[in-house]
Write a structure and sequence with these properties.
One of its GO terms (biological process) is mRNA cis splicing, via spliceosome. Residues 115-134 have a biased composition (Basic and acidic residues). Keywords: mRNA processing, mRNA splicing, Nucleus, Repeat. Helix 4 crosses helix 6, helix 6 (204-242) packs across helix 8 (272-308) and helix 11 (344-393) packs parallel to helix 14 (427-456). Helix content is 50%, strand content 5%. With 461 residues, it is mainly alpha-helical. The protein has a three-stranded antiparallel sheet, with no helix packed on it. Strands 4-5-6 form a three-stranded antiparallel sheet, with no helix packed on it. The chain has helices spanning 46-53, 82-88, 118-122, 163-176, 185-192, 204-242, 253-260, 272-308, 320-328, 331-335, 344-393, 403-410, 414-417, 427-456, and strands spanning 15-19, 25-29, 35-36, 56-60, 66-70, 76-77. The N and C termini lie far apart (176 Å).
Length: 461
């Protein structure tokens, strides 16, 4: 343990530390049932929290020597930075401090002759393993370009022939390390940074983009798996419920649950809300099927009643009070169960529709009969006029002829008999019409003769 850091506090009651067979520590929350590699903040000491909140991170170079890397400025130093010391709670600095030079493109790590004891470094394990300073760069002492490098770390960076292979290897590492879709990038780096496949993708930006794409794919896969699982569970749940005919469209969950809680399919999910949702979906289907069945039965009964009403000899003027007794006493309605689905309102509706049809047919028949009678009367009238005209041509009707003189001539004629009792003009009125025409025809010559006589006779003075 380090002399700088205070001892770790006891873990919170909800979190417990365990180790894998390989000795790697992981943490389990017995309340939320969450398992994770990262040490929970509740179990961290004040020094660990301080280290986590500052940008300097400690790493070990080849040969076991420690160096520090700033994740914000991308500077590195062999000497422990003051911020790191403060986070550890260190008092005093190194005995022979050497000024540190930030890393630049043209140089390397700054040189220092200072080193801390291994006991002091062991407490600062790589809990936060953000990407360290690239190991392919050399570390030299001072600014002397001729100085030999302090060390040239051997690189274990994997080489791949294409970007696709590198991305595939990086994704394989994420899967092997158990990276979840809800992890952030910093949390993921702590888990996979020490693995050589972490640098399968050299560019940090592309590496993070590959991680984000992996998380998106994981989310889609999780959603698809959840959808497939729910689809299968819904089908199994429906099959289970169908085996219980006592569960009907009006059964409630609190009534049905004791009936099915012993079923294996019921225990295949521990989510009570999910069970109830699947049950409610099944009940909705039953209600829909019941409603469709009722509508079908009602339609069949209405069709039967519509076919039955014309056989009851109802008249267009029959009242509902009389028709109701006639319809209710019909043996067909009493013996056939399908008509039990009809209410009095349904029967009244069918009766009214039937009455409308009868009234419409009655009115049409009346109109047709009236038109037919009108045509008959006009035909009879025209025939009688023809009879009178023939008598006129024969000289039997003239301006001075009387009706009594004509009646004996036509009283047995069918054309005269057809006019009897007919609406409109009577036979006698038609006869006088012919006489008037005859008088008008004589009045013209008579007036001409009178005019000539008046002109020729001398006037008296």
């Amino acid at each position: 343990m380090s002399g700088f850091a205070p001892p770790f506090p006891q873990p919170a009651s909800a979190w417990q530390e365990h180790k894998t067979p390989e000795g790697r520590a992981y943490y389990y929350n017995n309340v939320t049932k969450v398992t994770q590699w990262t040490k929970p903040e509740e179990m961290m000491s004040s020094a660990e929290r301080a280290l986590q909140s500052q940008p300097w991170k400690e790493y070990t170079a080849e040969g076991g020597r420690k160096y520090w890397y700033n994740t914000e400025t991308q500077q590195s130093s062999w000497e422990m930075p003051e911020a790191f010391k403060k986070a550890l709670g260190s008092t005093g600095g190194p005995s022979n401090p050497v000024p540190q030079t930030p890393y630049s493109q043209g140089g390397g790590y700054p040189a220092t002759g200072h080193d801390y004891s291994r006991d002091s470094r062991d407490s600062r394990d790589s809990r936060d393993t953000r990407e360290p300073y690239p190991e392919s760069r050399q570390i030299s002492y001072g600014n002397d370009s001729k100085a030999q490098p302090a060390f040239v770390p051997a690189t274990n960076d994997p080489e791949y022939s294409s970007q696709e292979e590198a991305e595939a290897a990086f994704v394989k590492l994420l899967k092997r390390s158990g990276v979840q879709s809800d992890w952030n990038w910093e949390q993921t780096i702590r888990v996979i940074a020490k693995d050589p496949q972490f640098r399968a993708i050299r560019d940090p930006k592309e590496r993070r983009e590959a991680f984000e794409k992996y998380c998106q794919d994981m989310i889609l896969q999780d959603k698809e798996r959840a959808k497939e699982r729910l689809t299968k569970l819904r089908a199994d749940f429906e099959t289970m419920l169908k085996r219980h005919p006592e569960i009907t469209h009006y059964t409630r969950w609190k009534t049905a649950r004791p009936m099915i809680e012993g079923e294996t399919i019921f225990r295949s999910t521990d989510d009570e809300d999910e069970r109830r949702q699947l049950f409610e979906e099944y009940i909705v289907g039953l209600k829909k099927a019941h409603k469709e069945q009722q509508a079908s039965q009602k339609k069949s009964a209405m069709d039967g009643l519509i076919e039955l009403l014309p056989k009851l000899n109802l008249e267009a003027y029959t009242r509902w009070a009389d028709a109701r007794d006639i319809i209710s006493s019909t043996p067909t309605l009493q013996e056939n169960e399908k008509y039990q689905a009809l209410s009095q309102f349904d029967i009244l509706t069918a009766f009214q529709n039937h009455m409308k049809g009868l009234e419409r047919a009655f009115i049409e028949n009346k109109q047709e009969e009236k038109s037919r009678k009108f045509r008959q009367e006009r035909t009879a009238r025209d025939a009688f006029k023809s009879l009178l005209n023939s008598l006129r041509e024969d000289g039997k009707i003239n301006a001075g002829t009387k009706w009594s003189q004509i009646v004996p001539l036509i009283e047995n004629d069918e054309r005269y008999l057809n006019m009897a009792g007919q609406a409109g003009s009577t036979p006698q009125e038609l006869f006088w019409d012919v006489v008037e025409e005859e008088e008008r025809s004589l009045r013209g010559p008579k007036n001409d003769v009178l005019d000539v006589i008046e002109v020729r006779l001398p006037r008296k003075t």
